[in-house]
Description:
Blueprint: H1 6-21, E1 26-30, E2 33-37, E3 43-45, E4 50-51, H2 52-70, E5 77-79, E6 89-91, E7 117-118, E8 122-126, E9 136-139, E10 142-143, E11 151-153, E12 160-165, H3 169-175, E13 178-183
Antiparallel strand pairs: 1-2, 3-4, 5-6, 7-10, 8-9, 8-11, 12-13
Helix pairs in contact: 1-2
Amino acid sequence: MSALTRSGVQSLLTQLDEIEAGPGGGVITFDTGRLEVSNLRKLFWPKLKLTKGDLFRHYVRVAPFILPVLEDRPLVMKRYPNGIAGAPFYQHRAPDKVPAGVRIERVNAGTEIRPHLVGGHGDYVWETGKFSNPPMTSLETWFIRGGSAGAALYTFLQPGIYGYVNHNMIEAFELGATAHFRVEGTWNHDLMTQVKAPEPVQASVSIR
């Protein structure tokens, strides 16, 4: 992946400006290839009057900083085709045709039904399910490896409906594989209120 220089950033910004002010769609070119863009005048954030073109320009400006971090990492896109107020969806699968320079990998995962993630709080969590071992305590979320069995105890502090997932979260909701707990009682507003203003963290460093 070649680095995006300052002049390269400015060139892309200028091209996006010209396309959005003109036909709204076209092709931008850069050192390693070209990319077709469309409908740049489409409003993505109506209240702020920000367009798809504004989003692209933001991507261009942060590209020199974020691309080195993303290199060789798999990506999952959360797409908002009808703007921030519209329904989003997650795109895991790359389209049949991708721009030149975009790396894709084909993975045959089959149907994964083993537990991976168990969400929610855990006062006491035994990841391997062995009660003779000391549990982990006061966890906000907790993880169970595929093929393992786990156990947890938690005291619900507020009434409501709590959902727990027993394997991959997206697939769990698609298949209805979630457990729901209805907790009755009186709402404790004090638990949801900041009763003391945050204070600076006092830290001491010992240099030898």
